[in-house]
Amino acid sequence: MNAPRLIVGLGNPTDQHASDRHNAGFWFIDALLRHYPGQMRPDTKFLGDVGEVRIGAQVVRLIKPMTYMNRSGQAVGALARFYRIDPEDILVAYDELDLMPGSARLKLGGSSTHNGLRDLTAHLGTPRYWRLRLGIGHPRTLNVNQSVINFVLGRPSAADQQLIEQAIDRSVDHLPVLFRDGWEIATQQLHSADPAMQAKKEAKGSSPKGETGEKTRRSAPEDA
Fold first, then answer.
1. Taking a C-beta distance cutoff of 8 angstroms, is the pair 64, 18 a contact?
2. N or C: which end of the chain has fewer CB within 10 A?
3. Is 22 part of the annotated catalytic residue set?
């Protein structure tokens, strides 16, 4: 499968929302442009800030929709149709409630309650586009006494902000792998570098001793 021809960062415009968790997709585009040569400019035809970035030998289009989150699909759909970019050649970076801060995962397709993704799916006519899920946590899992809407439109703690930025930088660093080796290998490597995945592996690595001993006891002869 081809590497992305378009990278989308989801968020809300204006300085009022610049530090919101909901703008993690915008933060990803900003980090991308700090790491690789490229630039963006406002484009009213596509209802957003658009541009290009060079990653290795590849030049990729970028867009930050300026339509507000719930109408992101208007901007992305217009640009994708104009340049004849298939949905499966689009990578969308966004804030993910179901992942903790510090996690970043790639995924193709699937349903979502994220309003930006729902509008993208409506305008692209399919959910089969790639997503970069940037964990921001959930108010319930973080023990924050806020509604979900107030949580995503709020600023993360300094510690969570640092974790989110680390996940973004890690994702940016894996883009050359994506363009060189494809989605499957890039997904495996990005997920393997995720601190949450590493913690799970360490937990599994520490458990076999007990499990093996228990299995040995169950399989040994009764008179042993």
1. no
2. C
3. yes
